[in-house]
Write a structure and sequence with these properties.
Elements lengths: L9 H10 L3 H9 L5 H29 L21
Helix pairs in contact: 2-3
Length: 86
């Protein structure tokens, strides 16, 4: 296991932190590339919130795709068409 170097500069710390990110957080975090470890933490939190919102929105959209326009209509069991017995 590699030891942490307390003398490491901010850009090197950010480089190592970025390489350890999950892919789902990496793109959003790189979009506003942080210049400090504190900025990195803020960007990752924002990326995590956006990912969670996107996941919730996608799963809700998929659930709603199961509903067809016909599901909202109510059907009557009596027919309005004339039958042969009328």
């Amino acid at each position: 296991m590699q030891q942490a170097d307390p003398q490491m500069n901010e850009s090197t710390k950010i480089h190592y932190l970025m390489n350890g990110l999950r892919q789902s957080l990496c793109t959003e975090t790189r979009r506003n590339y942080p210049t400090s470890t504190q900025g990195f933490l803020q960007q990752v939190k924002i990326a995590e919130e956006l990912t969670a919102l996107n996941t919730n929105f996608t799963s809700t959209s998929i659930d709603n795709d199961d509903i067809t326009p016909y599901d909202s209509f109510s059907y009557s069991t009596t027919s309005s068409y004339p039958t042969a017995n009328n």
